[in-house]
Fold this sequence. Notes:
This protein is of the alpha/beta class. It has one domain: Mannitol-specific EII, Chain A. Helix content is about 40%, strand content about 30%. The protein contains 6 helices and 8 strands. The N and C termini lie far apart (about 30 Å).
Amino acid sequence: MPETSSKDFENDLSISNVYYGLKGQTTEQIFKALSWKISQDISLSSSVIYADILRAAKNHNAAIGEGVAVIDWKCEGIKSSYVMVSMLENSINFSDSDGLPIDIVLVLISPKQESLTHLRHLSRLTRLFREESILSQLRSATCADGMISILCPENRKIQAA
Length: 161
């Protein structure tokens, strides 16, 4: 079940949506499901988003390791950055450097004119989603609210202490 959230990642980066149990058996099905979910949040059609996802996935390896993929691009049709964190219902095979199937997919869409901000956000996301403790906790979550509480900056500070 999706849960919309504006939890602050660090200053100007926030989670726009968390989705637990995204269905799909192939990358194509996952990309179509992501496109539809994202189109519900931003004012772009799912077909435009799907084309952008395909282009982004083709231009670089989305897998960052440990079963996580990041799909990112810059888009003219939005005014602020959009971040979706999705836990897949079933892991799928991706062209991942470490060979692990993907079960967490992150989407980062930034306004076209914000290249430096996009790179900064991408860097923060990839660092966060390489932390073994965060990944372990996310994989043990049983709903979107559980994922949100794990990603909440206040909880991460408490866990680090």
